[in-house]
């Protein structure tokens, strides 16, 4: 690559048209400017100037090198302007979270995008391991998981917690169901469903629950947005974090059962440790925290 300092000296020399004036602008001696010109010509392999008395004209190679020097100046100027601007309403932000929390985030994102046409958001639902690795490796600007990571590459901030919900058809009312009743209804299973059962059922049905593998499965649904759909149609029960419940379009046709011992899942916002976030990322991070706060269980 051509030496950047020599290129700049050459551009100033061409602009002033004089070695002495170029040296003054560059805070150099005239021999220093001449030496840098000779080094640049050696790099290019051709003369860049044709001297005429006290002046000079550019050779064809000199014209090409000057154009390159000016282009690099323009690129650096655009870069400096972009860094100074740090516009919170422009650029791309990538966010990753669980599927249920991603569903809760989407409705909050659309007004932001209408307000900021220059902002682009990429929201990806992913397993927690993929969220952790993606933020640590820079593929995502922000991530949301349910525990504080022990990864030294990550900085984590607790932004709230959400209730783990047992969902029944709205016709079931708000009574506390018995475990036998749930088994009779059948479990609407999904990829995280058995994990949620192991978190929720031991404390609430200690004498009856014998492990998630013993649950009577009525159906399996893999699409996060459709998991509550069978329940809304009166079929079975399921388990989801509150974010997945609130985002369901048929919310009025399901109910959250009352349980003696509630269980909650933490919400942690992740960033790459040591990375200074641009204004647009901080703006989206604030919005993510607001969504998490709305899911926070109320006292009493």
TrEMBL record:
Alphabetic keyword roster = DNA-binding, Transcription, Transcription regulation
Which GO molecular-function terms appear in the entry? DNA-binding transcription factor activity; transcription cis-regulatory region binding
Gene3D superfamilies cross-referenced by the UniProt entry: Periplasmic binding protein-like II (3.40.190.10), Winged helix-like DNA-binding domain superfamily/Winged helix DNA-binding domain (1.10.10.10)
- Report if keyword NAD is assigned: no
InterPro entries according to UniProt = LysR_HTH_N (IPR000847), LysR_subst-bd (IPR005119), WH-like_DNA-bd_sf (IPR036388), WH_DNA-bd_sf (IPR036390)
Does the record carry DNA-binding as a key word? yes
User: Pfam families this protein is in?
Assistant: HTH_1 (PF00126), LysR_substrate (PF03466)
Q: Which residues form the HTH lysR-type domain?
A: 2-59
Record-linked PANTHER family: HTH-TYPE TRANSCRIPTIONAL REGULATOR, TRANSCRIPTIONAL REGULATOR LYSR FAMILY
Protein family per UniProt: Belongs to the LysR transcriptional regulatory family.
The protein here is known as Transcriptional regulator, LysR family
Q: Identify the species of origin.
A: Limimaricola hongkongensis DSM 17492
């Amino acid at each position: 690559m051509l030496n950047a300092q020599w290129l700049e000296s050459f551009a100033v020399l061409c602009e002033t048209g004089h070695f002495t004036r170029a040296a003054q602008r560059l805070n150099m001696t005239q021999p220093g400017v001449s030496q840098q010109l000779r080094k640049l010509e050696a790099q290019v392999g051709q003369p860049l100037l044709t001297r005429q008395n006290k002046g000079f004209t550019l050779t064809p190679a000199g014209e090409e090198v000057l154009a390159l020097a000016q282009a690099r100046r323009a690129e650096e100027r655009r870069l400096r302007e972009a860094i100074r601007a740090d516009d919170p309403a422009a650029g791309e932000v990538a966010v990753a979270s669980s599927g249920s929390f991603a569903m809760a985030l989407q409705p909050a994102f659309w007004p932001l995008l209408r307000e900021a046409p220059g902002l682009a958001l990429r929201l990806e639902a992913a397993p927690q391991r993929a969220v952790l690795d993606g933020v640590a490796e820079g593929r995502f600007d922000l991530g949301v998981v349910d525990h504080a990571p022990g990864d030294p590459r990550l900085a984590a901030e607790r932004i709230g917690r959400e209730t783990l919900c047992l969902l029944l058809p709205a016709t079931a009312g708000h009574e506390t169901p018995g475990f036998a009743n749930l088994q009779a209804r059948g479990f609407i299973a999904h990829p995280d469903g058995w994990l949620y059962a192991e978190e929720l059922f031991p404390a609430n049905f200690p004498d009856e629950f014998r492990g998630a593998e013993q649950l009577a499965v009525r159906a399996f649904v893999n699409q996060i947005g459709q998991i509550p759909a069978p329940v809304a149609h009166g079929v079975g029960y399921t388990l989801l974090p509150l974010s997945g419940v609130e985002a369901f379009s048929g919310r009025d046709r399901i109910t959250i059962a009352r349980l003696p011992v509630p269980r909650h899942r933490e919400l942690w916002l992740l960033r790459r440790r040591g990375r200074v976030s641009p204004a647009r990322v901080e703006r989206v991070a604030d919005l993510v925290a607001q969504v998490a706060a709305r899911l926070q269980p109320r006292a009493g």
